[in-house]
Amino acid sequence: MVININDNIFSIGSCFALEINRYLKRNGIDSLVNPFGTIYNSYSIYKNIETIVLSKDDGLFEESEITEIDGKFVSFNSSTLFESDIYQNLKNKLINSASNSKEKLLKSNIVIITFGTSVVYRLKESGKIVANCHKLNEALFTKEMLSVEENIEFITKTISLLKEHIPNIKIILTLSPVRHNINNPEENSLSKAILRVAIDSLINNRDIFYFSAYELVIDGFRDYSYYKKDKTHLKKRTVLKIMEEFSSRYFNDELKKYISNFEKLKKNRKHKPFNPEDEKYFNHLKNTLLSLYKMYEIRESSVIEKEIFFVGEKLFNYFVDRYEELINIFNQLKRDKFYYYFITVLDIIKERNFDSTDLGNLKLLNSFKKLDLFNITIENKFYRSRIERKSTLD
Question: Which of 25, 37, 159, 233 has the most CB atoms within 10 Å of its CB?
Fold first, then answer.
């Protein structure tokens, strides 16, 4: 097995890299994906990794990264997410993306790279391969197919760069099962074949692995019922089948158990009781909250964090009058972001004498985005809710 419960994961590449990331996040495993947007070819993936790894802490930036064409500033090493009418805005966005992702990448000991195509476009003016044409006039570019040797060169550079900066890294290479050009099946077939040969030459099954997503789809999902209406992108159930194979092949038993437990706890949180104010439901929510917190202590995750707040909100909504019991529960949440949030809410409930009607209208979890600002946010939200309700009654 390759991936353990405490491993940090970074994924980059085509839209299938996004599917991998979505699967991981749904199962309580935070990972970073495509800091510069969706990238398809081996050269641009290499340039993205290079930009992140070599980015300067002092914010220094290569001016050549940004190009102005017809009054629009674009980054040809990035997706269409990185373009602007204002130069400084795009520059800041690129710097922030590189600096924010550098620490996460360098802490990742698992990197998943998904290649999409061997077809590339070069900017005529500079001769450089672009990651995205940004919907500019096609006359600005020339189209070509990277050879097996060129793909090997760029993938090798990517692997070497990662190994140089990340000790004990494991890299999983995969070929996107999504057709990159649906209107040209011959080109698509040749493009994928070239990449598949290039990838195969680099696999050693020690620290460089290959996951056969492409083969699973081509050989296992020939029926269009597995595809969305565009007959190109995969349905959720198809991706789930692929990712089940991925987890079976690469996740160790501890991680599989962790994911299974998280699935059960998510179902527990969504459970709708016949009588939401009885003792059984109170204990059900309490046990779910504490179990989620234990999982969070094993592996921090923004998804599990949200589940904890969802369950806490239910406890407020249905059992606001059980102040001392709630205090005892929240005292077991030792992390500041949980403990101080819940205790602050309880103090305000007690001070303002709120009831479940007030709380039900607040939607606490949606009332703030940054936990470090929760004190002011909660105070203001509770106060406004109380005043508005009072004026309505008057």
Answer: 159
Of 218, 225, 224, whose CA–CA distance to 242 is shortest? 218
Q: What is the pLDDT of residues 317-343, one digit of tens each?
A: 788 788 889 888 988 887 667 777 787
Closest CA to 368 of 345, 339, 335: 345
pLDDT digit string, tens, across residues 260-317: 999 999 999 888 888 888 899 999 999 999 999 999 999 988 889 888 888 988 888 7
d(CA 123, CA 143): 9
Residue 13 and residue 34 in contact, taking contact as beta carbons nearer than 8 Å:
yes
Condensed to tens digits (0 to 9), the pLDDT of residues 31-43 reads 899 999 999 999 9
Closest CA to 115 of 197, 55, 51: 197
CB contact at 8 A, 289 and 312: yes
Q: CB-based burial of residue 111 (10 Å sphere; 0-12 exposed, 13-18 middle, 19+ buried)? A: buried
* Secondary structure class of 228 (helix, strand, coil): coil
Q: How does pLDDT run across 346-386, given as a tens digit for each residue?
A: 776 666 665 555 555 445 444 433 344 444 444 444 444 44
- Residue for token pair 């598949």: 196
DSSP 227: B
DSSP string across 132-163:
--TT--GGGEEEEE--HHHHHHHHHHHHHHHH
Helix (H), strand (E) at residue 112:
strand 110-115
Mean confidence (pLDDT) of the chain:
84
- Angle, vertex CA 33, rays to CA 138 and CA 258, nearest 5: 150
Instruction: Give the pairing of strands 83-84 and 119-123.
Output: unpaired
- Residue 68's DSSP bridge partners are 73
CB contact set of 312 (below 8 Å; sequence gap of 6+):
289, 330, 338, 341, 342, 364
Quote the pLDDT of residue 370: 39
All residues at 6 or more sequence positions from 56 whose CB lies less than 8 Å from its CB, including other chains = none
